[in-house]
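Design a sequence for this backbone.
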């Protein structure tokens, strides 16, 4: 009896996932089509992959984002998603964890570079204003 209930629950989950995917692909503006086409080409697909293939992959990406967001909202502060929540969710997947860490490190490096650039630019502006005053 318990096995039948488990199968029924699994069927309900599969049906819900299919319904969600169907809703994603029906009447929704494609957000990542251009990027996905480039990624597919970079990973060995044709330069102009089938639109249906891009749409399916986009539906999977959107579903993944939605699922991760829901899971992150459950573990973190109520109604908020933080970077730490995402890191926590991917901690057991070495590839995803390494990628998240790489992206966070790169983000910090970019922030430091922008700050340094802005400081140099600001110092250069002040110097020209001082020269004009003399």
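Sequence:
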């Amino acid at each position: 009896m318990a096995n039948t209930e488990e199968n029924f629950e699994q069927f309900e989950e599969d049906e819900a996932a299919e319904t969600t995917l169907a809703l994603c692909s029906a009447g929704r503006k494609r957000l990542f089509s251009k990027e996905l086409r480039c990624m597919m080409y970079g990973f060995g697909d044709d330069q102009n992959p089938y639109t249906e293939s891009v749409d399916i992959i986009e539906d999977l990406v959107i579903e993944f984002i939605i699922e991760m967001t829901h899971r992150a909202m459950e573990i973190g502060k109520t109604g908020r998603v933080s970077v730490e929540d995402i890191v926590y969710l991917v901690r057991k997947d070495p590839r995803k964890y390494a990628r998240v860490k790489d992206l966070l490190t790169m983000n910090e490096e970019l922030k430091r570079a922008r700050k340094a650039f802005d400081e140099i630019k600001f110092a250069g502006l002040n110097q020209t204003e001082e020269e004009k005053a003399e």
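The chain has a mean pLDDT of 82.
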